[in-house]
Amino acid sequence: MSLTSLPPELLLEVLKHLERDEDLYHLGLTCKHTHRPAFSMFLKKHKIDDPTDMFNCLSAYQYPPLLLPLIRASLWIKDIRHITCAVNPGYDRVWNDVRDLKLDWPHRLLAGAFESSGSVKWANGVTKLLDAAIERGCFSLDVNGGEGLQKFYQEKEPDEMPTIIIQNAHKGFKKKLTSSLKTIASRMSLRSKGLSHLTLEPKLPGPHLRNIDLNYSPMFQYTFYPWTLKMFSNNASTITHLSLTCPYVPTHIMTHFLSSITLPHLDHLSISLFVYQDLLTAAHTVRFYDLVKFLERHPSIESLDLQGVEKPETPSPILKNRILPRIKRIVAHHVWINTLIGFLDRSPDAYPLIESIGVTLEYTTYAHFSDKQHTYEPINGALRRIAQASFPRPITLELQLTTKRGMLEWFDDHTSLGKENSVISSLSCVSALVLTTRFYVCFGREEVYHLPGWLALFPALRSVTLRDLRPEKDGYRLVDDKPLLRRMAVECPTLELVNTINLGTLLDGAERDVGQSY
């Protein structure tokens, strides 16, 4: 009788006799009939939920040394679509996605001073896991966390990247397995007659990776960076979405990264170096002309979101070459908006597909803290530039209110100027407005009171989206939505639709027709 013919009850009894992690691991690799039971026994032993019982979601708070090799070997599970590695310590995470593989790295890995050799060994284990997922058809890669790894950034990469090979040694295991089976086999007069080897799901031909999100990621840290460049190179032909939220990456690494990759089918690019509690510095940014050169090489980009990248020295630098010919949506600092829209002066058809323009202050670097009244004045310059431009169709204007300082004064200044003098009254190209704030910015009762009169200044406004407008911290209901919508209907005769998203107690509703009677 062969091992494959053992009844499940007997097989489980065999597994109980394998006390060492190595024995369970190798038994899971040896035979397709023991693969699932052995790996499940391994996970149960270390109090790790079986991924197949948790919507393909794995969360590990312990660190058995063979956990990474075991997960890599079990990645033949079908329908894996997305993998997230969270390595940030200090707080719990809640996973919302399903059919994903999630790795929640144990806090002990990041405790204390991390020796270089330890970080290299850990990095090699993580990258081998990511390689296994990508090779088997993963099309969305999200690597986040890593705030605790900031101290491992180096101004200069090591001359030689150290490597570590996790060996897959099976020598001597068959003998151990036979010994473990001997007692039970003799009782039942059984004899093991060979093993059918496990065949993993084959690697899929060609690259499949499309979406990459690196959020506070360690993937630019020196132990990961060579793998990161190789990963982008291997999947360059399929990547369409790239999002980088890496405020602590040294500038010279970002310069090298942007000059080293070319993604011919990239249609969405998001770069955020915004840190609300810190002032941004020249040591951690993306230089203006480095990014311009990258955009010149990627004419396929349709959506661009820039937060915290370097502000050019001149208010509106002139671009030598046309960039972003297929752009549909852009959100950026007002100086970037001035620069891009200014290109229309030389080439009126530079942006034939443009649909949406967003303007932000990024106040941690660029706002004037000493002048509360004029904090939002720079946005007015971008609005003038937009009003003077000629667009092929009406556009959506997105305004990101990034600080409480000066917000009320800005609303009041425009309503006081009135339709005759406010720059907002010149925005006949704007048919839709999206108004949003940072999560730490309160949109108080006074701002709400000024909102209808301020919206009335837009001459052709048909719809308004209010997103993430957070009420004051005291929990007081700032306004009842019916009176506010009634005021909007009276003061904004062209307005047809108000869409509210994540407003908490500020407004209660998702979509309102302001023409409706209340």
From TrEMBL:
InterPro entries: F-box_dom, LRR_dom_sf. Gene3D superfamilies: Ribonuclease Inhibitor (3.80.10.10). It comes from Crepidotus variabilis. This is F-box domain-containing protein. Coiled coil: none annotated. Residues 1-32 form the F-box domain.
